[in-house]
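P.,

For your records, the input lines for the assembly:
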Amino acid sequence: MDDGLQDVPQARIELRGISKHFGEGSTRVDALVDIELTVGAGEIIGLLGPSGSGKSTLLNVIGCVSEPDAGWMRLDGELVYDTRWLRADRRRLRLTKIGFIFQTHNLLPFLNATENVAEVMELAGLSRHQARMSANALLDYLEVGHRRQAFPGEMSGGEAQRVAIARALANNPRIILADEPTAPLDSARAHIVMDLLSRIAKDHQAAVLVVTHDEAIFQRFDRLVSLRDGRLVAT
Amino acid sequence: MNLAFRDIRRNRLRFALTVLGVGMLLGVVIAMTGIYEGALTDALALPRGEHAALWVVQPRTFGPFAEPSRIPRDTRDLIRRMPGVAAAGAVTFQTVQSTTAAGRPVRLYLEGYEPGRPGGPPPLVAGHGLTESHYQVVVDASSHLKLGTRVLLGPYRDPYTVVGLTHGMVSSAGEPLAWVNLLDAQALQFDVPPALERRERAAGRTPPTTTDVNAVLVRLEPGVSALSVAHDISRWKHLAAVPEAREETYLTLFVIQKMQKQLGMFMTILTAVSAVIIALIIYTLTMDKVRSIATLKFIGAPDRTIVGLIVQQALTIGIMGYGIGLALIVLGKAYFPRRVQLEPFDLAVVLLIVIVVCLAGSVLSIRAALKVDPAEALASG
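Structure tokens returned:
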């Protein structure tokens, strides 16, 4: 059993008493209830749960997109929420400290592979030249460098997902949040993606939190935590 | 990285067609300004071409371009003898509808003048001026009449031979100008058929006399004040003298102003239509990118990146459309039936309006984009 609360020396994600609800009265839905979760550096955690259990809400909360109702949250050692947001520029926080991998790669369709990755670096302040160089290096690292000029519509699902992972890594984030990254992939490609995420967790000492339904990759996680009706439960 | 141009690059054809459509619309707006300036130039070509300091006209009238003005022809001699007057010439103006000898319909704005006195055509581009007392005409090339063509004028369809051509001389209504000898013009304007003359006399009325003219043009000696001479002339109760500048003002005020308002209304409507179309296009382009905008927000792009994406696309559509519209009109203005005169100031104003319209058109899209929830990036699909 794992309730998500571990004694992790280098905690990248720490959530204590995090709750979140939608609606009021008869329409009230408790999306997250008293969540306690710690993910350490280099750790890769699987987040399980049926549809509507609160997985996306939890990613939105950790990603500082959605505001919790209670509790506190520390990201990469910085207390960012304690019953209210303590950091005003949460987009900057996402840009520099958090990498996102979406279920359907969500690459910008009008940018090629290099530009999709470089854009995030430019937003963080890198020069265009530096951003392009680093983006190409990342694409090579993820073995998709040969597709750097390709647009998302011209890539296979696996290629697009690797480019999306490269984008998530663009600013060397300490936290990586992945929303079912293997869902659109076949089994072989799903394992390649998980290999990459494991490698990234170790190489970059990042905390990787992966929402998944794919039982075939459960054994690839250091830990599994499960959400049911907004509560972390035994797995 | 410029996201706006990257998006445009990816949707070249769609964008090109959009810009072409906006360009054609803006081309109409630019053409309207050119038509107005052209009409103004056309209208002022005649009074300015006379190089007269004063126009002597019927009292309590605004001159021959604004309303009928009739004064005796011997007014010219009266004026000529005044101190400070260098030259004076009697003129008449009228519109004639006629045909060539070959039967082609011709509509001309005819000036009768006295060769050698103020009045008459500007320097000719072909042929020569009037060399005989009767039945010669100088016309503007826009009439498409050739040298030697015979034009049938007046109630008796007397044949007038085209002996000279001018260029760019049309009336405020766009009719080509033509010049004939004053005596011919008086006959054309005031002569009535014998039967009508008899009827007028039987009724105790005086038929129009061919000794009347519409105005007398006055040139002054150097250093002589036009206002002072005008004041002296106006002391005769049967005459009024209007300085050239005021005659131009009357022309623009009474003859051109309605056209200006008409074109102004058209331009306002077209600008409003352009604004709505640009706003709709930008809104559609933005709504097509909702998921990309949500993703950009989710990964941490600041609002200015998203606003920049929208505004740059709007301005690109507007400015490129303006360029295409301008190019279309520059290339096509020679085919317009009337003068299209593009003035740098007008073009700058239209460009400024286009920029304002684009920025205003972006507001709706920016509001929609800023409302996009970054959490939408997590939604599957």
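Two observations worth noting. Residues 187-204 of chain A form the longest helix (18 residues). The CA atoms of residues 6 and 84 of chain A lie 24 Å apart.

Regards
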